[in-house]
Amino acid sequence: MPVIHWFRRDLRITDNTALIEARRHSEEVVPVYIASEWRTEHRWTGPARQEYLCGCLKSLSQNIEAIGGKLIFRCGCADAELEKLVHETKAEAIYFNRDPDPFGRGMEERVVKMAGKLGVKVCAFKDVAIHERDEIMTSTGGPYRVFTPFSKAWMKTEKPSSQGTVRKLSVPPGIKTLAVPSLENWGLKSSAQIPEAGERAARKRLGDFLRGPLLTYAANRNTPDGRTTSHLSADLRHGTISIREIYEKCVRRAKEAGAGERKSIFTFINELIWREFYMQILWHFPEVLEQEFNPRHRALKWRKAGEKFKRWCDGETGFPIVDAGMRQLNTTGFMHNRLRMITAMFLTKDLHIDWRHGERYFMQKLVDGEIASNNGGWQWSAGTGADAAPYFRIQNPWTQSARFDPEGKYIKQWVPELRDVPAARLVKAPEDGGSIAKNYPPPMVDHAREREVTFEMFASLDSRS
Predict the structure, then answer these.
(1) 134 and 9 inside one domain
(2) Which residues contact 310 (CB under 8 A, 6 or more apart)?
(3) What is the pTM for the complete model shown?
(4) In the chain, what percentage of residues exceed pLDDT 70?
(5) What is the CATH number of the domain that holds 7?
(6) By the 8 A CB rule, do 441 and 434 touch?
(7) Structural domain containing residue 452
(8) Average pLDDT for residues 189-215, to the nearest whole number?
(9) Structural domains of the chain, count
(10) Which of 284, 306, 332 marks a domain boundary?
(11) What is the mean pLDDT of the chain?
(12) Are the beta carbons of 268 and 217 closer than 8 angstroms?
């Protein structure tokens, strides 16, 4: 009897844990992707990410055809569509890789309940993370709340090995399928300049990174101009490449590298650990999607989104580095990680606007929108998250520009009004509070003053306790 493999965040045929197990246990596998049916603005995604998803699905469909199979597409609630597929195919089991998000967890529970009523076996696997859920715990059995001890425990834990590629897939004939999803499925249009999607493109990005930027990552990762980071975040989010393959190839590269290069490689691995740390925070504390991680900070009086929030979204704040980051996001669906911190801190600690507004805007714009990482990053920047030194970390946009874009290359790429302005004027606030250039707005706030306001906001909480 056939089994079903339910594709979710694992859009690949290489090192796909559940797909490999499904193929191992049955001669016939029904590979299916079930598209959601929402058609309005969605809190957790947007046009750029959905367009990238469509590209990933097209690539996956072609890869499955190349090994003799056919990817089935359905649309609707996953539990209901899987139930229909079980009846159609007489499948005896449903295989899938677990989702780290609360929404995916909820659907998994519904699928398990449905399968139980039908007498169908459910086989769920770890795949999105190297270590998930409750694998990295404190000595007392609780979840880590601070990154550094978590990362040390993570490094000491034995790692699962990557597996090979599925070379052949036999799919029962005659199964009805929809067309490969397109943006029209959700009533969306995208104008973002998104990268090439799919498993082959992901593997090429990894190869390019391993041969170059990885070896200088420690020194250059905070420089937003040029190729200084992996650009693999969207591939990890959609599962066009596995986290195990990335980790193993980095470790293998470290064995043949010099001391300085090894430092860079493990600096990058540390970023992979941050990803898993935030996933485990979300797993154990799902309330962070609605509330501050630190309960004491839930009484903070954030300002409401208004005209200032719109100017931040549009990249019209008068702070060149902030505006460059926001315009890169709006144009490409991507933003360099250093700029994510700068723009997030500006919204929360210079404009004092609720971090949830920024979190949602990022999720609606980012191609690589990962709920756990995005939430963790926003709460870290706002000073409310899982951090040993929270609110008094406030980045100055002007000094950040001087440190990481001293020649103004990044700023001038994304803010054309400033292309003829000397770099020295881009890294220092105008003394008269005026505009840096014609057709460019003056700084909308005084950073030094707003920094003090942030201290006052958090100090008010201390006075209440």
Answers:
(1) no
(2) none
(3) 0.96
(4) 98
(5) 3.40.50.620
(6) no
(7) 295-460
(8) 95
(9) 3
(10) 284
(11) 95
(12) yes
What sign for the dihedral angle of Cα 350, 353, 354, 356? negative
Q: Which is nearest to 396 in space by CA: 465, 321, 329, 333?
A: 321
Residue 153 phi, psi dihedral angles, 5° rounding: -65, -40
CA–CA gap between residue 386 and residue 380 (Å, rounded): 7
- Give pLDDT, residue 390: 66
Write down the pLDDT at residue 464.
61
Q: Which two tokens stand for residue 181?
A: 């999803």
The residue whose two tokens read 């980790």 is 247
Yes or no: say if 304 and 287 are a contact pair by the CB < 8 Å rule. no
- In DSSP terms, 31 is beta-bridged to 5
Among 127, 148, 174, the domain-final residue is 127
Tokens linked to 216: 């200088």
Digit-coded pLDDT (tens) for 280-330? 999 999 999 999 999 999 999 999 999 999 999 999 999 999 999 999 999
Q: What is the CATH number of the domain that holds 260?
A: 1.25.40.80
b/e 85-121 (16+ beta carbons within 10 angstroms → b): bbeebebbbbbbbbbbbbebeebbeebeebbeeeebe
CA atoms within 13 A on the CB side of 418: 28
What are the residue numbers of the active site? 271, 274, 302, 337, 355, 378
Residue 290 domain-assigned (yes or no): no
* pLDDT grade for 39, boundaries at 50, 70 and 90: confident
The yes-or-no verdict on residue 356 having pLDDT over 60 is yes
Residues paired with residue 54 on neighbouring β-strands, in sequence order: none
Do 354 and 318 meet the contact criterion of CB atoms below 8 Å apart?
A: no
Angle at 225 between CA 221 and CA 229, to 5 degrees: 35
